[in-house]
Amino acid sequence: MTTDTTLKVLIVNESPTFRYDVMGMLSNLNYKFFQANSGLRAIQSALTNHPDIILMNMQLPDMTGIECLRRIKQNALTEKIRVIIMREMTREKDVDGITQEAYRLGCSDFVTIPIVPAALERRMEKLARFVHISNTARSAKDTMAEITLPRRIRI
């Protein structure tokens, strides 16, 4: 994860047009973007690029967003990455079950497709604050662990 102010965001969707549209919606924010067109490529990118946030479609060509989320959260190298699931607006009865399963696995938030740019930007900014706080706390913890306390002096 990043330690400066530039957050790394991985956008996962099979459509290059959709990915570019999302990047355009967030272009006024200080993010570095990566892209993946499948669940497997998303997992590979998460391992190599260490994004702070993943915006992932629920339906991917090779697996569901839930399965991809499960694999990301099961890996010690990627488990701390925040994930926002993008899903189509639907009237299906199992949506609540899918939502509960995603939150149980560690999903941070959901956005509906078609995406409302202002809503996505608000969610990303909110999550970015949590990432910065978490990174700052982790950095402070690491610094404290490096401090060597002097030995007790006997009189």
Give a written overview of the molecule:
The chain has helices spanning 16-25, 39-49, 65-74, 95-105, 117-146; strands at residues 7-12, 31-36, 53-57, 82-88, 109-113. The mean pLDDT is 87. The chain is 46% helix and 19% strand. It has a single domain (7-146), classed as Rossmann fold (3-Layer(aba) Sandwich). The protein is globular. The chain has 155 residues and is α/β, with parallel strands linked by helices. The chain contains five helices and five strands.
Summarize this structure briefly.
This protein has 155 residues and is of the alpha/beta class. The protein is 46% helix and 19% strand.
State the CATH architecture.
Answer: 3-Layer(aba) Sandwich
- Low-pLDDT parts are none
Largest sheet: 5 strands, parallel
Q: How many individual domains?
A: 1
Q: Strand percentage, roughly? A: 15-25%
> If you consult CATH, what is the topology?
Rossmann fold
Strand and helix layout:
Blueprint (H helix, E strand, L loop, with lengths): L6 E6 L3 H10 L5 E6 L2 H11 L3 E5 L7 H10 L7 E7 L6 H11 L3 E5 L3 H30 L9
Parallel strand pairs: 1-2, 1-3, 3-4, 4-5
Helix pairs in contact: 2-3, 3-4
